[in-house]
Write a structure and sequence with these properties.
Number of helices: 15
Structural class: alpha+beta
Shape: globular
Radius of gyration: 27 Å
Distance between the termini: 62 Å
CATH class of the largest domain: Alpha Beta
CATH architecture of the largest domain: Alpha-Beta Complex
Amino acid sequence: YVYDRDKMPWAASTTDLNTLWKKRVKYELVNLKIAGSTDAKNVEVLTKRYQNLKSQASKINNQDVFQTIMDAFTESIDPHTNYFNPTNAQAFSEDMARSFEGIGARLQLENEVLKLGEIIPGGPAFKSKLLNTGDRIIGVAQGNGEFEDITGWRIENSVSKIKGPKGTTVRLKIIPVGQEMSAKPVIISLVREKIIMEDQSAKKKVETVKSNGNTYKIGIISLPAFYADFNAQKQGDKNFKSTTRDVRLLIDTLKTRDKVDAIVMDLRSNGGGSLTEAINLTGLFIDKGPVVQVKDLRNEVDVNEDTNPGVAWDGPFGVMVDRLSASASEIFAGAIQDYGRGIIFGTQTYGKGTVQSSIKMDDLVNPSILQRLAALVGKNGVAAKPANDQPQLGLINLTMAKFYRVNGSSTQHKGVMPDITFPSLYPLDKIGEDTEKSALPWDTVNKSNFVPVADLSLTRTELVKLHNQRMANSLDYKTLQQDLADLKKREGENSVSLNEVKLKKERDSLEAKSLIKTNMLRSSRGLPPVKKGDKIKKEESFDFVEDESLKVMADLLQLKKTT
C-alpha cells in the first residue's frame, strides 16, 4: 500500500479509486490488529473514524474554501504572506498574546461531541471544581439566554460560543465523564476570565553539571515563541504579557534564588513571533546598541536598537537552536553571536529573514459594505462578528521588509550557523527557507555601527576541540548518528506491506532495536533497564543536545576560571 501519495497520480477510474480505498482500509485494519485489538473492535473503531471524517467533510463551508484559495494565492507570492480567516485570525492573536478570554479549558471533538480535554489551572472551570477532564458539553447558553444544542457542530463554532469577553456569563449543559449520553445533563454557570497560557510561555529549570572536579549550576530558559499581548498593550495595560517581561523575571529568579553560574536560552522549535520582542529580549544581554537592520520595499535600511542601558544577565550565556528556529529566534541568536555575547549550539536555523505586518481586511472595506456582508454571512449560519473585536473579514500577514544581522548579512536562506554543531534531527534539504520555491533571495547590507562585547573566536576553537573529544567516545552521539542513518534509509520509502505477518515482524524488529538502544543509554546513566510497554518517567528521558550543550557551558566556565 502506497501511503505517501504526494507524487502519485490521481485514480484513473472509480474502480481504481475503490481498489485504493480497499488497500487503505486493510492497512488500517492490519495496524489495529497488530496492536492487539479484536476484529469486532477494529471494525467499530474504523467505522467511527470514517463516519467522523465524512461528517467533518460535510461541514466545509465557504470560509474554508476561501481560505484554501487564498493559501494557494499568497504562497505564490512568498512563503510567509498569509491570509487568516476570522477564526484563524482570532487564534493567531491569542497565540501571540499567550492569552484568551473564556472558561479556561482546552476542548476536543470526539464522535461529534465536544469534550473537555484539559482544564487550565487557575481558570473559571478549574476554580468552580464542577468540571472534570472528559466531561461532554452538549449545550451552551449566553447569560440567561436559551441553550443551543452544539452536538455535531464544528469545533471552532462550539468554542466561539464558549469563549467570550471576561466578566460575562456562559452556561454549559454537561454530561459528566463516565455517564451515558442518555443521562440527565448538569447545568453549570461560569463567569469568563482572561486566561494566561502559562504552559506555552517562557519557563526555567536548573541543571547541575560536574566537570573536572567542579560542580556548576546552569539555568535553562525554554522559550516556545516571541509573544506579546498587543491588544492589552494598546489598551494601556502596564502589566501586559510579553516574552521580555517573562524572561526578565526568570533571570532574576535564576540569579538571586537559584544562584546559577550560567544561563542557556532554548530556542529549539521556536518559529519566531514579535520583532519588537526579539529586540527587547536581546537587550537583556547587551548593554545597548544595534540589534537588527530592516530594509523596506524602498531599499531604505533602518537600524533597530536596544536603547535601554544595562543588562539583566552579564554572566556566561548560550543559545540552543535547531532547523525549526526561525525569524525572531534568528534575530536573537544572530545578535548574540555577532556581539560575542554567547555560544550558539545546535544546527543551521530555518533561514527566514523576512518581516510581516498584519493588516485587518476590515480596514480596507467601506463600513456600509462591511455591515451588509456581516448580515449576509450571518444568514448563512456563520457567526457574523468574531469575539473580542477580531476582524470580520480576517487579516493578512504581508511581507513588507527583510531583516539583516548587525554584521550586514541576511538570515534569509542561510539562517544562523551555530558555533557548536550537532547532527540535525530534521532533513535540511526538506525543511527550511531555502527549500521554498517562492522564497526571497539572500543578500547583504552595510554593517551597522556596533561594538562587540567580546571576541570569542579563540574560546570557540577550544570549546569545539573539547566537544569533539567528547563526541569521539560518546554513546549518545553514536546512537544519534545511527538513528539518523536509519531514518535516511527509510526516507525514500512510501509504501508498506499489507501482509499482517510480515508487517508485524518488521514492527517487532524495529521495536526490539529501539528497546536495546534505550537500555544501553539508560545503563550509561546508571538507570535500570525497561521492558516493552513500560512507561518512561519524564525526568528519565534523554535530550542529547541539551546535555552536551550544558557540558560545553561547563567547559566555558572552566576556561574562564583558568584564564
